[in-house]
Fold each of these.
Amino acid sequence: MAKTFAFAAADDSPLQDFCVAQAGSSVFVNGLACKDPKTVQANDFSFGGLHLPGNTSNPVGSKVTPVTVNQLPGLNTLGISMARIDVAPWGINPPHTHPRATEMLLVLEGTLEVGFVTSNPDNRLISKILQKGDVFVFPQGLIHYQRNTGFGNAVAIAALGSQSPGVITIANVVFGSMPHISLDILAKAFQVDKTVVSQIQSKF
């Protein structure tokens, strides 16, 4: 009987101690080019400010403070990042996806309703109310959200399985693209009149 061999198409681990992102590099790679290791300093591996509350005075009532490779160059090639999420009472972190990362959420303060939706054809909502100290995981690429169901501010820390997880906020992308997606397409997709689509687009 013939043997079958499986080969991995990616490295299982970094090939060097670190690859601190080089700001302004003209080299284009899948990730960011590395600084000369001899010029690397402790500040390349440090980020300050997650103890500061985010400003939730906006239409959705939330603020996400990311710590990705863009804010912390030492994350380059390490496959992790994080974020602080502040949510005002009854505010939301709107439905969104991370195309390149699974997310694990830890509630530090308050009460959060969280949920994600499975892919077609089931589109099943899996949701739960979280209290301080609770953890919830959102699988990579699935639409998910958080909502503060308490009377005080909620704070959470998210750990993400990518140095650059990306964020696709569903409403912004669908109704706020530039140029706009055709009214005909969105009206048919959402089964509503074109005037409804136009009204929603005007808010983005």
Amino acid sequence: MRRVVITGMGAVTPLGNSVEETWDSVVKGHSGIGKLTRFDCTKFSAKTAAQVHNFDLSDYMQINKRHRMDRFAQYAVASSLMAIKDSGIVPGETITRERIGVSFGTAIGGIESFEEMHKNLLEGGYTNLYPFSTTMVISNMAASQVSIALGAKGVNTVSVISCASGSNAIGDAFRIIQRGEADAMLAGGSEASLTPLGIGAFCAMGAISTNPDPKTACRPFDKHRDGLVMGEGAGALVLEALESAVRRDADIYGEIVGYSSVSDAYHITSPAPGGEGAIRAMEGALSQSGLLKEDIDYINAHGTSTKYNDKFETQAIKTFLQERAFSIPISSTKSMTGHMMGAAGAVEAIFTLMTLKTGVIPPTINLTTPDPECDLNYVPNAAKKARVNAALSNALGFGGHNTALIFKRTEE
């Protein structure tokens, strides 16, 4: 099995349209959540969202193909172009195109285009539909458009497992390189579901915060949390075989050493009691990593700001780490980005790698009234500095999906 490192990263988030801008905001504890303005939400129980601002695909591509891409695919392409540039890989030159693959995730796909096209169908029949209607809606189009934009001709796959999609896509890319099927993979997740149907469905479920104050609406692990806040955007990482990165003398953010994806087989929305599935995911990732539990210095939690997720994830971490769970720093960066759904795990993997690189642990903001059932060290409200040698990132999704990734500092 080949060792796999991360050599490039890119991001489009509610906190900024680059990794640098986003990370700077996270470290400062800034919130990307604001009033929902994408559509008229007067009749919706949710009034807040974490929206991407000042995004224009033409900033990233010489030829503007926006009319052929749903917003979620645009975010994927932009973040991927940033990541490949950051890596220094020139497809077809530094690595042959056939040895570069793509693994991208999304929870919902082209819902914005779906809603628009359904409206067009009702108004004028099928002849009123855009010729690229199908290819703007289907979930594989993030991976497909990234592959086309980069000229990457290797493995091309998509992960659609709810809120764990981005993490799962990274894990699958890790295994593809380990097995020798590719030398580099562009992996990540993308989402753009801030639409009437996307928001409305979560309102109907009762899973979304109704707090009218955007800046305090998302409060993971806090006693007064009342639901998630939806976000959007994309995160992309370049995973590369260590020998390839060393040969190129590439800058390395960290090494991915563990990945596990398991199912609760319990309920379509509720996590299994005690976080049983999350425990097995963390244990599985650790068993692959060659590390001990004592080596894990930080956890980027799934931390959705919902009643059961935060409670059961806390219980899972306690079971996984035993007494050490009370001292290890844990943070939910969703408190600042909102829940980016299929993009969440990818962006949070980026935050985890930046923690390894910089020694800065992001805070969980809005944690002012601790929940007695959520009694771990969630780095409340202000970042802290600490050397982190190995870190774990959790992603849990509707349907009972549990994914864990482990990253560590690279030693050649």
